[in-house]
Amino acid sequence: MRAIVCETYGAIADLAWRDWQNPQPEGRQIVIAAEAIGVNYPDGLLVQGLYQARPELPFIPGMEAAGRVVAVGPDVSRHAVGDRVVVQLSHGAYAERVLADEKAAMPLPDSVSDEAACALVCAYGTSHHALKQRAKLASGETLLVLGAAGSTGIAAIEIGKIIGARVIAVASSEEKRALAKAKGADEAIGYDDLRGDIKRLTGGNGIDVAFDPVGGEAFEAVARSMAWNGRLLVIGFASGTIPKLAVNLALVKGFACVGVFWGAFTTKEPDVFAANMAELMGWAAASKVRPEISERAKLRDAADVLQRMHERKTLGKIVLIP
């Protein structure tokens, strides 16, 4: 088979498109023929050696893939050859054939496409966990979403509206703000006068829940704009800068800074993760959430796609097609 391979930690452009041994399932493992593979910001961090994990080299990056089961190990009981599934992994998805433990594979209803399923795993999974378990977002609260035109941002907007929040989207261009509004945001603003715009839109009351996958200077502006009993969710650092929190702000404003590490959550709380995914699949089947698939790129072009994502030149969810 062919796969995208990280042979040494370094530049995203160094990823190789080459032959790789076909996976052979053992025990409770399955192999799927990938029809769609999700691209996520952490994939680029992983191959640069900048993520929390460092797989043994060489390795195949990629956290999610959807397709049909083509082989099963002797102890598999949950899936059979021919089943449509989506798999969630730490790495290994950027390949024509994907090996996974059967517990990492979730059945796909006919109404959910392979491309949409990939978006539901990491992007929607992260936002859902952040808003439901970490922030405990409630109906009537105000939710601020930074990076609102990215895949996790769009997911946060849609999930926030399902919960019943008022959603203020923050994005860097008119095109991105228009997309955020189209996905359900009540307001869409830029980064130029973030504190002023938040004060204006909340009548000076501040933000109940802030969803921040961006970091950098925006984080400080948001920290100074939180409401009493607010929750500032730390999702990631797409700006490239890890901010520092002036902890006196948390003290005097009475808000909590809450970390969201979705990958660890899926392994530490597998039953909660499974329940979350079942809810997301149900929402997708009922068209309550509609992942924005902005691009379908060839698997061999994964390095270019990841590079553009890290340069913040992409919108919505991008999937790779083998």
TrEMBL record:
<dbReference type="InterPro" id="IPR013154">
    <property type="entry name" value="ADH-like_N"/>
</dbReference>
<dbReference type="InterPro" id="IPR051397">
    <property type="entry name" value="Zn-ADH-like_protein"/>
</dbReference>
<dbReference type="GO" id="GO:0016491">
    <property type="term" value="F:oxidoreductase activity"/>
</dbReference>
<dbReference type="Pfam" id="PF00107">
    <property type="entry name" value="ADH_zinc_N"/>
</dbReference>
<dbReference type="Pfam" id="PF08240">
    <property type="entry name" value="ADH_N"/>
</dbReference>
<feature type="domain" description="Enoyl reductase (ER)">
    <location>
        <begin position="10"/>
        <end position="320"/>
    </location>
</feature>
<dbReference type="InterPro" id="IPR020843">
    <property type="entry name" value="ER"/>
</dbReference>
<dbReference type="InterPro" id="IPR036291">
    <property type="entry name" value="NAD(P)-bd_dom_sf"/>
</dbReference>
<dbReference type="InterPro" id="IPR013149">
    <property type="entry name" value="ADH-like_C"/>
</dbReference>
<protein>
    <submittedName>
        <fullName>NADPH:quinone oxidoreductase family protein</fullName>
    </submittedName>
</protein>
<dbReference type="InterPro" id="IPR011032">
    <property type="entry name" value="GroES-like_sf"/>
</dbReference>
